[in-house]
Amino acid sequence: MLSSVSLKISAGEIVTIVGPNGSGKSTLLRSIIGAQKPSTGVVKRQDGLRIGYVPQKLHIDPTLPITVQRFLSLPQKVSVARAQSALKQAGADNLGKRQMSALSGGQFQRVLLARALLSDPHLLILDEATQGLDQPGSAAFYRQIEQLRQTLGCAILMVSHELHVVMAASDRVICLNGHICCEGEPEQVASAPEYRALFGSGTQGALALYRHEHNHSHDHDCGHDHSHAPREGQAEVRS
Amino acid sequence: MIALLDSFLVRAALAGTGVAFAAAPLGCFVIWRRMAYFGDATAHASILGVALSLAFQAPIFAGVLVVSLLMATAISSLSGRGFAMDTLLGVMAHSALAFGLVAVSFLDGVRIDLMAYLFGDILAVSRMDLLIIWGGACLVIVLLWFRWSSLLTATLSEDLAHAAGINPKREQLALTICLALVVAVAIKVVGVLLISAMLLIPAAAARTFAKTPETMAATAVVIGALAALGGLHLSFQLDTPTGPTIVCFAAVLFALSSIGKTLIDRKS
Lengths: 239, 268
What we know:
The structure holds two protein chains of two kinds. Helix content of chain A is 38%, strand content 18%. Chain A has helices at residues 25-33, 68-72, 80-89, 105-117, 135-152, 163-168, 186-191, 193-199, 202-214, 220-223, and strands at residues 6-10, 14-18, 42-45, 51-54, 123-127, 155-160, 172-176, 180-184, 234-238. In chain A, strand 5 (123-127), helix 5 and strand 6 (155-160) form a beta-alpha-beta unit. Chain B is mainly alpha-helical. Chain B has one domain: Orthogonal Bundle (ABC transporter involved in vitamin B12 uptake, BtuC), CATH 1.10.3470.
């Protein structure tokens, strides 16, 4: 159940939605991609907005044999060269001939990311994309995302549990629990009382630890040059 | 050429390969989507279609098609509503069969060979039957061919399908219609009890060596056709019932491919 959710994403921005289980994070994403119709309210997409969607852990039935190259060619056929360049962008070089069922968790998520990049998206949506990856694995994955934002200039909307990892990679964080509890820059949200009430102060330690380890400066100086990229991707949700 | 069709063996061979052509690629989807029981339920319900068409003096093909369509849509609309699917399908498959058998017994004055519908009667295929079988098979193949990409995407993940602007419900409906068509054309060839076998066994045998969905479907067609022709030949030699012999032949091919795969895996 979601109510009074209003959010807007602009090109070149990384927005993260955090929230406890059942807070409606996936529902929100599903209504943005159109998999679910909101009972009230509207999702307004800019005309011709191309969305790339990286689903929450995808299960491919082992009875279905499929190579990475063939998987990327669904539903629209893409050339081998195009598939390879998308795989490269997603940090999954040379996986084209492998069977999907033979990939490791990290490789699988990168292939899903490559698939989302094929449509040359204005808006990239990731639903718990690093579930099942270990911490270095997901940190590497989010670094890849950050890099993509800079090379492609697309807007990125993610949902995650791993607050400490995600927060370091986002421009704006939205804390969701049926409605928007609080939103703002990662630091603001992390110290907001609503956020602490939801997640406790336990995660604060992890957040600090992560900051300390990697000391990300977000490369803001460079990132913002791209925020007014030629492609104006924009999506807006109101309910 | 046409004179060839005078031979019942040629007609039987054509009927068998026709069913294999449609059933094998559809069987791949049945396996990938874990709908094995779904095919069973639809096929078992078709005996009710036989009874109804005899009662109303309608063509068997039409009655079977309508009943299996109804059964298949009933199941696919019930799915995803929180029912325990395996139980529900078990209940529906066998009760439909039972109702069909009881309904047949009410038909006074109509003497029907029940065995012919339960196990098929491929040697009695007429030219008209052949036309229906190949017509239905072509329809299924055309449907699968043109929807292949969307069907495959919807099979992989409903969310991915939505994101690509594909409606998974519509793809499910397309498969449901194909399934009903295959059941309707296959009833004469292998009978209601063994239709699922023609769907599943060739596709399962093809899985062992396939690298892509397309090669799996193509291999399944070859295996299905081989089983149809080989089974027909064997049943003629050994004087055994044809439908079951075709299924036995397919099962042996499945066993051989599994054993072959195990041996190859061990070597490497």
